[in-house]
Amino acid sequence: MKLEGIHHITAITADGPRNVDFYARVLGLRLVKQTVNQDDPTVYHLFYADEKGSHGADLTFFEYPGAARGRAGAGMIHRIVHRVASDDALAFWRERLAAEGLEPVLEPGRLLFDDPEGLGHELVVVERLDEPLLARSSEVPDEFALQGFEAVRAYVADPAASERLVRALGFEERAPHDFETRGAERGGRIVFEGSTARGLGGAGTVHHVAWATPPDEQEAWRRRVIEAGADPTPVIDRFYFKSVYFREPGGVLYEIATIGPGFTADEPLESLGERLSLPPAYEPLRSRLEGILTPLPDTRRWRRVGTPAS
Ligand code: ZN
């Protein structure tokens, strides 16, 4: 039994419309779901991914309008690492991000940048047999597109304690402090960096990272987490997948999420993310919620397929 790499990563934004502009237009990801936070339906939960809304490429944001900027510290993920195909892709992104007023830093084999709210990203050139997970954007040629998650980088006070837990969950150390979990189809990594700096949750910070499991193995993973000394929640039905949450010893919030049912559970693949999706329990509140939530940019203009004629 192995976790299939990263399922999704969830972060916080203070500004939904700008977040959509950056992730859908600038980064060329597909907005595959606009829904609400299941614990607070007056705020958005936005999901970006590849064309099919795959696990392994799913970056999600809770929107807390006007939230103060956070800052990554001990117990937090501070950088999200995405795969790209080539050094030419790094050069493309350096130019594109600089034209957006960001300050990307090119290093051998990787490009570092922060999003407009300070969330850290890294693009790396990797050769993997894993299926590249691309969105078809009118803004980004396929050869340069992001291909899904490679890793997350986390600050923890005591890397040894954090590393014991991931070892107990079947991760293997590929380089010092760099651990990979690789399942039948995909792999993903977490890199631990020692830091005792006090972090502050808020806009531009990562809330949690979810690891992927086939649905029939989730209960077994939950038991494995307990045996490893952590304290998981019961299985929670998030409608698009089922989730178990727990804190690792360094304080980073982990989730183990099922592969499926996925984002086509309540709308067709062709029009994913084009309208507000509500869990059945919140459907009666639709008109009220639509009055509270900030209108978002129409992402269809940045899509290479399904663009309306109008
Ligand atoms: Zn999650």
Compile the SSE list and pairings:
Elements: E1 6-13, H1 16-26, E2 30-37, E3 40-49, E4 58-63, E5 76-84, H2 87-99, E6 105-107, E7 110-114, E8 120-125, E9 149-156, H3 159-168, E10 172-175, E11 178-182, E12 187-194, E13 206-213, H4 218-227, E14 236-237, E15 242-247, E16 253-258, H5 286-292
Parallel strand pairs: 1-4, 5-8, 9-12, 13-16
Antiparallel strand pairs: 1-13, 2-3, 3-4, 5-9, 6-7, 7-8, 10-11, 11-12, 14-15, 15-16
The structure holds zinc ion.
Zinc ion binds next to strand 1 and strand 13.
Folded structure, characterized:
- The chain has 310 residues and is of the alpha+beta class.
- It has a single domain, classed as 2,3-Dihydroxybiphenyl 1,2-Dioxygenase, domain 1.
- It has five helices and 16 strands.
- The strands form two sheets. Strands 2-3-4-1-13-16-15-14 form an eight-stranded mixed β-sheet. Strands 6-7-8-5-9-12-11-10 form an eight-stranded mixed β-sheet, with helices on one face.
- The longest helix has 13 residues.
- The site of zinc ion (ZN) has 6 residues, from strand 1 and strand 13.
